[in-house]
Amino acid sequence: MPSRERLQALRYNLIPDHLIGEILTKRWTDNAIPFLVLVAVIALFGTAIPGFFNPFSLQESTRQLGEFAIVVIGLTVVMLGGGIDLSVGSIFALATFASVGSFFILGLPVWAAFLAALATGAVFGAINGYLVGFLRLRAFLTTLVTFIIGRAVFDILVVQFGAAIQMSFASSEAWDFIGDGTFAGLSVPVIAAGLLALVTHVTLTRARIGWHILAVGGSRRSAHNAGIKVRRTVFLTYVFSGLCSGAAGFLIACRLSGAGPGTGAGLEILALTAAVVGGNALGGGRGSVVKGLMGAVIVLVMTNGLIRMGYGTGTNQMVLGIMLAIAVTIDIRWLKNRHKVLNEVYVAPVYLKMGETQSAEPHSGTPYALNNRLAAAAPIGLGALEGPEDVILDADDHLYCGTRHGEIVRFFAPDYTRSEVFAHVGGFPLGLAFDRDGNLISCVGAMGLYKIAPDRTVTRLSAETRRSLTSVQDDARLRDPNDLDIAPDGRIYFTDSTKRYDAHDWTLDSIENRGTGRLLVYDPRDGSTKTLLDGYRYTNGVCMAHDGKSLYFAESWACRIHRYWLEGPKAGTAECVIKDMPGYTDNINRASDGTYWMAWLGMRTPSFDLSLRHPAMRKRMTRRLPQDDWLFPNINTGGIVKFDDSGRILQTFGDLTGENHPMVTSMREHKGELFIGGILNNRIGRYRIEGAAPEWTGMRAYWGSRA
């Protein structure tokens, strides 16, 4: 290998560039920045302020945090619904006055004071919700108006009744406990905030109303078109925010036993800053309660810390303003440009030098030399199918295939001119196999492993496997389940071609050529899915060996066939049995004479082989050229290969005319004929095999005479 290529191999194969793209695609990265800010703020003020972590100091701070967090949770829900509520400060102040007024002036019990606070919050929240949700007024201006009116009403009430509150001698153990007591070392506001956060989080992520709120925040027009009652949903978010502000007002009323001109002043700015700094989007539809809580801690620690360090109100407001400006800028710019950044960094090609191969040219004299035999294949379902990637026949000789429209189509024997939609699975059904009980098992691209019972009931068997602790990739989800086969004990062995791309992005995986394909097994006895092998370049076809003690699987982009041992001294290991083929390997199936059929989905070309040795060129190509101008593997011409257990090539078949089956992804032998599928074809091919056993079927080969 030339020194330049050696350097390229070291640079692109050892430096994990792809991890940047993997990390940026994860939803948890939105939490990473506020979490790091939270840690930095706590560390900064914890070291700068003596006694910062003193238990008494922390207890008092957490009381404030509990009250503040409840307000932030309410505002977060409004923002997730696509709105904004600037009136939380005035609602908070009015609820505080309603609580102390009910308890100290009217002499009502504590529970009545609590209900008065909630009623105050609910009324103002309902006013906001009606104006913004039903009358469709601007949320910013509307809540600004209610903030001004609410603040004015509060100031009037404080001036009018402040003295009466101060002169009251009303007392209650419950009131004092809520304000100053603890339960298991935690103050009531902290417990209340924790319970509210938990219930709100579960509602947003698991309940229908929560999904509706997020949908409305993401796109009101789309939510309306989907049948969601947008106006009612928006109304409820404001009512919830008002209730949260009311509850927080009651808690501070119990703690301070009074209300003054400064109650709730600036709270709306603090709450808004906390929600945005935590990572909740101003535009709605993106965020969480957890982000709101992180923002609440950041803002409260920072404001209290600055005060304890001797800085005045002006400094506090300036710092909050700077934090809010930075958070808004990051939110807007990142939301707008995230996909551009991902396009720049996600595709990270690696270096690969393909091995020398024998020629597949006609009359070249090699075992791989193509011919024109498949041109004689008769079409089935011509023009009525789109993308029959795999084909299979049942015990009654009926023919099945998947289509690009998510359907399993059945053609009736013996002439296969009549057909019906056997089942609608969704996605893109790829590999097919019948189990011992006649259930049709299918790998469905981007969805998982599915079972279609004889009565056409569709059941999902698996959509994920156990996540590996060392992988940054989302290797739990099945992204591109491709082909499968079933062992005599009922376990289903199947491939997940790539962990980085969904089925429709196979071209990106071929250009990147990184080993992210794997072999998995699904055990119907306990419903578990486990990864057996990993690190292959686009794992594809799977076929049980005739003796049932091993299986073959294809590694498409490396043009290799591997054998994985299930039993014997090599159990649990794999070995390459055919390498450096001139075509890209696809599905593998049994032949009647104890050998195996294998599909070539396309043929290697010198240009693409050369590009694999230049990852920098492929990287620039994906960033600078439109996709129509990219260099892909050639999948317009393929064929069929027959091989035995030793890896010896016995026969090849092709269609040099390019009319019937130039591209092949699967084939099944059945009663002396080959039935041929192709992911880009609009038909199934039917080809008579010379000298094949006329009564042999795959079903009997797998499951015996009962099939």
Automatic annotation (TrEMBL):
Query: What kind of membrane protein is this, topologically?
Result: Multi-pass membrane protein
Question: What superkingdom does the record give?
Answer: Bacteria
Keywords carried by this UniProt record: Cell membrane, Membrane, Transmembrane, Transmembrane helix
Q: Name one GO molecular function term.
A: transmembrane transporter activity
Residue ranges annotated as transmembrane are: 32-56, 68-97, 103-127, 139-163, 183-204, 235-258, 264-282, 289-311
Where in this chain does the record put each Strictosidine synthase conserved region domain? Answer: 482-568
Subcellular localization is given as: Cell membrane
InterPro entries named in the record: 6-blade_b-propeller_TolB-like (IPR011042), ABC_transp_permease (IPR001851), Strictosidine_synth_cons-reg (IPR018119)
**One of the record's GO cellular component terms:** plasma membrane
User: Keyword Membrane on this protein?
Assistant: yes
Query: CDD domains this protein is in?
Result: TM_PBP1_transp_AraH_like
Could you identify this protein by its name?
ABC transporter permease
